[in-house]
Amino acid sequence: MTFEICGDSTESYTLAKQFGVKRIELCSALSAGGLTPSIGLIERCSEIGGVEIHAMIRHIEGGFVYSNDDIEIMKKDISYVRKAGATGVVFGCLNSENEIEKEQNKQLLSHAKNLGLEVTFHRAFDFCNNPKTSLDLLIEIGFDRLLTSGQESTAIEGISMIRKLVIQANRKIEIMAGSGVNISNAKELTSAGVDALHFTSHTVNSEKQYPGMGIKNSPNLKKIEAITSTIKPA
């Protein structure tokens, strides 16, 4: 089973390497669903090496509907993260009707592919009105993989939908289950036939928080160790 850890620090990256995880989705602002990470963080993780870096491309909070200016910003961010050492990018554009925004996604994917990057469509998919039509469109556009919770709050709640998506995908796109993945449900989720499991590498660090300044996280070694020792990473 391929594992992807979601993290926001060199500590998360180092733990991913320690436990043989294939890739890390590197983000900032995890409490907001993940935003584009700093270039310095990507460069430092790249220097450590040993784990693929897939950078979130999402520069603003609040959703997945973007203007033309936003798309130009995202293209620039894709170029910068590639130069810093990323091997993949993660993004997703919707329209105001919660449908896949075909042309914007095509623009970003084409730009990323021209730079030699893998491309994942993130959990914006879980807000789409028609999952079957949406998956067909992601395949048509050319995405390498889809991260999904099966349109539920957690992947285990959405496992029935995830099974359907795996069958529909028919190996034309990888299906990666994410959201709420832990030691108690990881084995059941693998039984859905997914290509990968995606889970957070962190826990909230409650020792010192500054009100109004966001949430500080600490890597959760025990969680990573438990999942990777129960299901061997590929």
Rounded radius of gyration (Å) = 17 Å
**Mean pLDDT across all amino acids:** 94
Question: Major beta sheet, specifics?
Answer: 8 strands, parallel, barrel
Kindly report the spatial arrangement of strands forming the biggest sheet.
Answer: 1-2-3-4-5-6-7-8
Q: Determine the CATH superfamily.
A: Copper homeostasis (CutC) domain
How far the N terminus sits from the C terminus, by CA atoms, comes to: 5 Å
Assembly annotation? single chain
Question: How many alpha or pi helices?
Answer: 8
Briefly note the CATH topology name.
TIM Barrel
At CATH's second level, what is the architecture?
Answer: Alpha-Beta Barrel
Q: How many domains in all? A: 1
The CATH class assignment is Alpha Beta
Estimate the strand proportion: 15-25%
SSE layout and pairings?
Elements: E1 2-7, H1 10-18, E2 23-26, H2 39-48, E3 52-56, H3 68-84, E4 88-91, H4 102-114, E5 118-121, H5 131-141, E6 145-148, H6 159-169, E7 174-178, H7 186-190, E8 196-200, E9 202-204, E10 217-219, H8 221-230
Parallel strand pairs: 1-2, 1-8, 2-3, 3-4, 4-5, 5-6, 6-7, 7-8
Antiparallel strand pairs: 9-10
Helix pairs in contact: 3-4
